[in-house]
Amino acid sequence: MTSTKMPSIVHTGAEIRQLIHSAQLSGKRVGVVPTMGALHAGHLSLIDAAREQCDLVVATIFVNPTQFAPGEDFERYPRNLEADAAKLASCGCDIVFAPAVDEMYPQGYGTSIDVGAVSRPLEGERRPTHFAGVATVVLKLFQLVPANRAYFGHKDYQQTLVVRQMVRDLNVPIDIVVCPTVRETDGLAMSSRNAYLSPDERKRATALHDSMQLAAQLASTGERSVAKLTAAMEQHLNEVGGFVLDYIAFVRQDTVELVDEVTGPTVILIAAHLGQTRLIDNLVIG
Amino acid sequence: MTSTKMPSIVHTGAEIRQLIHSAQLSGKRVGVVPTMGALHAGHLSLIDAAREQCDLVVATIFVNPTQFAPGEDFERYPRNLEADAAKLASCGCDIVFAPAVDEMYPQGYGTSIDVGAVSRPLEGERRPTHFAGVATVVLKLFQLVPANRAYFGHKDYQQTLVVRQMVRDLNVPIDIVVCPTVRETDGLAMSSRNAYLSPDERKRATALHDSMQLAAQLASTGERSVAKLTAAMEQHLNEVGGFVLDYIAFVRQDTVELVDEVTGPTVILIAAHLGQTRLIDNLVIG
C-alpha cells in the first residue's frame, strides 16, 4: 500500500461537503457508494461502476443504528475501517466518508422519512422500522455528499425501490444506479452477514440461490404458477435443511406487487434464517 | 409595470434547478422565500431581507395540499398568481417558482417527513398532519431550489422550529433566516387568512395581539405566573367576544416546552377561531 493510493478518510459532514463542492466546481462528476463497511466484492463492484462513470468516487461507511431494530445485529455487525480502506484503495476509491454516530444523529435528533407503500410488505413487514432508517440515512448522506450518481446493489432489491421512491418523491438531484448482485462461485450472494455463518451453514446457504435457480428453470420450461414454483423452492430448502423461511415472494419487476403467475419480468425474493443469521436474496426471471 | 421588472415565472422543477445552478456557478448567493401566495406585507418583508442578503431572490408560490387536513381551507385558500407576481416585482424578486400540484406530487407519490417531538404539541395536536406536510414540501422545495438561505416569518413560530429541525436533522445545506412578524397598524398580524374576516371580525381580531400585549405588560411589572397571565388574556378575549379559543401557551423561546412561570425569554402562542377563520399569533416576552 502506498500513501498516494489510500483514499482520504473524512469524518465530518462539513469536510466532506467542502470536498464534493470543490470537485463539482472544477467540473468533476461525483459518484457515491453508500455502505455499512465490512466490504466484499459486491461493494467493490459498485466502486468499479462509479469509477467507470465518474471523476471522483466517494464511499460512505456508516453502520446506521436507525435501520436496525432492537435485538437485531447492530452491535455485532462487523466493523473494520482499516481493512475497508485498503480494499477501497485497491479499486481506486478517492474518498471515504466515515462519520461517527453522533455526527449523524446528534442529541435532539428527531426526524424520520417514511416512503410509504413500497416500504410496507416483505422486509418492511418483518423489519417495521428498517426502511424508515434506510431512507432517512440515505437522504442525509445525499445532502452531505451531493454526488451526481449513487450506486446500490440489486441484492437489496426492496431497498433499491425505497431509495428510488425517496429520491423521486423528495426531488433529490441524484441518479440512482443499481448494479447486479455479485455471487460466490457456488452462487451464494455476497453479504457482510455471510461472515456470521458456520462452515456447515455456509455450505447449506447456497440452497437459497439454488432454489431460485430451480424456480427459474421450471418457469423457463412453462411452469407459470407461483404456488407451484414456491412449493418446489420450499421442497429444495427442506431437503438441504437448516432454514427457517421468512418468505418466498414473486413480485412484478421494479415493484413489490405480488404476482400469482409468472407472465413477464418477475423478481423472486427470498428471506430465511440459517442458525442465527438472516439472509436475503433475489433473482429476476421471466 | 415594465417587463424587465417582472420576475420570471417558472413552473417546472427541471427549469428552476437549472436557473439556480447557473446562478451559483457564477458565484451568486441565492435566497428563497417559500410562500403559498396571497402575498401581503409580511411576505414582502421576507423578500426584502433576501434582497438585502443575496444576489438572486426566488419566491416559491405553492398552495401545498398535504399541509391541509380534510375540512380545512385548501379549496378556498386565496390564489392570484398575477397579483402576487406584481407585488414581487415591486420589491425586486427575480424568479417565481410556481409548480402545479402534479409537478410536486405526481401519481405514485408516497413519501412523508416526520420531524418528531417539536411537531407534536400545539398546532401539531390540532392539525395532526400539518407539519409532516410542511416539512415534506419544504424539503422538496429546498431540493428544487437549492438556495443558500431561506426566509420564514416568525408569525408561524412552530413552523420555523419544524423547518429548523428538519434542516438540521437531514443535513440540508441551507441557512434558515426567521424574520419578525409584520403587523397591521392596529397590531393584527399579517396573514393571508385575514381576507376571510368580515368587517366586524376584522375589528375584533386585534384582541389577539392586544391580549398578548396585556400579558407582556403584566409580566414586565412582575407577574410571572403563566396561569394568571393566561387568565388575563382570556378575560380580555371574552370581553371583546366572538372568539373560540384553541389554545394559549407560554413556551421557552426556540422550543415548544411549556413553562409555568415567565423567568426568561418566553413566547406566548395563541390560536383561536373567529367565525369561520382560524388565526394564530405569537409574541416574545421576558
UniProtKB/TrEMBL annotation, chains A, B:
GO BP annotation list: pantothenate biosynthetic process
Positions annotated to bind (R)-pantoate: Q67, Q159
Signal peptide: none
InterPro entries (alphabetical): Cyt_trans-like (IPR004821), Pantoate_ligase (IPR003721), Pantoate_ligase_C (IPR042176), Rossmann-like_a/b/a_fold (IPR014729)
GO cellular component, one term: cytosol
Localization, UniProt: Cytoplasm
Pathway: Cofactor biosynthesis; (R)-pantothenate biosynthesis; (R)-pantothenate from (R)-pantoate and beta-alanine: step 1/1
Domain of life: Bacteria
Transmembrane segments: none
Primary residence: cytoplasm
Annotated residues for binding of ATP: 36-43, 153-156, 182, 190-193
Keywords: ATP-binding, Cytoplasm, Ligase, Nucleotide-binding, Pantothenate biosynthesis
Molecular function, one GO term: pantoate-beta-alanine ligase activity
Enzyme class, spelled out: ligase
Alphabetized Gene3D superfamilies for the sequence: HUPs (3.40.50.620), Pantoate-beta-alanine ligase, C-terminal domain (3.30.1300.10)
NCBIfam families, alphabetized: cyt_tran_rel (TIGR00125), panC (TIGR00018)
Family, as annotated: Belongs to the pantothenate synthetase family.
Note: The reaction proceeds by a bi uni uni bi ping pong mechanism.
Protein's name in the database: Pantothenate synthetase
Species: Aeoliella mucimassa
Taxonomic path: Bacteria, Pseudomonadati, Planctomycetota, Planctomycetia, Pirellulales
